[in-house]
Amino acid sequence: MGQLEERSRKITKRVRVQDGLVLALYSAAALSMVLLAPNTLRLLKRIDPDLAKKRKPGYRIQQAVRRLESRGLVQQEGKGKEWRILLTTKGEKFAERLEVVRRIEIRQPRRWDGKWRVVIFDVWEKRKQVRERLRNILKKAGFYMLQDSVWVHPYPCEELIAFIRSDLKLGSGILYIIAEGLENDKHLKQHFDLE
Question: What CATH class has 3-103?
């Protein structure tokens, strides 16, 4: 695996842990959570089951908290073994957006209309985190990556793309194309079980 691939993979993992932590806090009754040593693993299993199996899971949570704190999404209270993480107002808004993205589903019609939905985006390097978040959303929504910035889905998903465009402030940086056909799409049809 190349250096860029490795760096991209690490960023994606970090973002997944941070998003999971924000959603866990958001879904907690009082929008706050007390983390004690035994509770850290329980929280990790909820965020990312694979992460809980790795070395130093508590340290990874603390890293994610520091990153979220630097972005102004959470604030930390207390020190030592017992500390609390509270979502800020900005963090609550961020969690609400994450929740909306999670709920938007691409509905599969009874019959495929034979058209491909192609998403093409161009996000500058200085907005790398936005680009990674976009890729993460597309991957979770079931898109197939043709190239780094070209993703394909067989079913209508304009609502999701409109939300992403507005939420990530992409404007004309993201295009939604409905294509009658794609050259050599046999592997895509197999991937989406369309044959």
Answer: mainly alpha
